[in-house]
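step 3/5: co-fold with inosinic acid
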Amino acid sequence: MTLNMVIGAQWGDEGKGRVVDLLAAEADFVARYSGGDNAGHTVTVGEQTFKLHLIPSGVIQPHTVGLLGNGMVINPIVLLEEMEKLRQAGVVINPERVRISYAAHVITPGHLALDKAREMARGDEKIGTTQRGIGPAYNDKTARGGIRMETVLSQETFADAIEANIEKVNRQLTSLYGTPPLDAHAVAQEYAGYARTLAPYVGDVSGMLAEALESDQSVLAEGAQGTLLDLDHGTYPFVTSSTPTAPGVLVGLGVGVGKVGRVLGVTKAFQTRVGEGPFPTEVFGDAAIRLRGTGENPWDEFGTTTGRPRRVGWLDGVLLRYAARVNGLTELVITKLDILSALDPLRICTGYRVNGDRLENLPLGPSDLSPFEPVYEELPGWEEDIMGVQAWENLPPQARAYIQRIEELVGLPVNLISVGPERDQIVQR
Ligand code: IMP
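step 4/5: write tokens
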């Protein structure tokens, strides 16, 4: 059957987890294809709030199988902790329900230490990474010196590989960054234990998906991070080290191009970003607090993984059009529309101005956005609380007009709109 994709259309944190949770109701497999525990997906079901970093949020639906694809980088400690937390919350986690690609890469304590040391060394030019060892693990992968998950199938081989990795990292930590070395032998011994626990979960994800797609089963790819954090197509160098865009699904799961169905681009009704880098429509002061929240609610704009306050701003239509293009999106999902209630007027960036000229699209991608000044269009806001609305017709006319303007600007339909954090706070058109 088909492979549908849920892709972040902004700088991550778009609310993909809850969209995946909804669509997973009709999927047999839900698969993560890129990134690692730099991601944080939140799903609220009744009284329970699940925060997932590695396991696809689709596993909260009891009939699905969760897959961790070859494009991922996996910290074994975080994975085991997450498995345990999910079990305690009543989610069944066993090797029938969760499979890890043999070709996914392992994040070691050495990668974590290097991520921190490199950020410190960058000083004012830091990227603002999540310090989860993501960049260094992908560096090892592309330099052909990484440790793949298949290594856990032999405890001894895994321990040797970890020890060699830490020794290699120690040379960099001490000579380049003046940081104390890690105890390679102790880390290797500790990791040998994780190998035993994880070995039954390792398998051929690409092969499983090929079989599933040949039969009548459906697969949902769960994006992490977002288009503007893509290593090639994002705001380089302020990006992550993987490919969160739609083509990354195929590479990161080992699936061919022929089976792709819906490509849903998830965007908030406004714009957020965590970490450094350009953000043309950013707002500050009271307006920022209004969009970000104060941190009292779990859905306020504070990072799920790092707790950092997110930078916030108006929706950027230029960047959203760009995301539609590089992903080949077939539709948009808009989240957090409720946050715009009682804000009047609303603003959308429809173009950029540079040297007196108006641009509708980016001449050279989004890596250098500094010359551009956003051109805003103002739209009337609405007063009503819309968190209880479930039908399109019941949204205030101004809210419908806001959504319709986004559809026009991007040239894509909006079929799902979330109006609150709960599973049923969603308007399906
Ligand atoms: P890294 O992925 O930890 O290397 O971080 C690189 C950049 O991506 C930083 O600006 C992070 O804040 C950002 N980033 C990584 N993962 C996420 C995410 O899941 N949501 C939002 N930003 C992220």
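step 5/5: annotate
The pocket of inosinic acid is lined by residues 11-13, 38-40, 127-130, 132, 134-135, 224-225, 229, 238, 240-241, 274-275 (CB under 6 Å).
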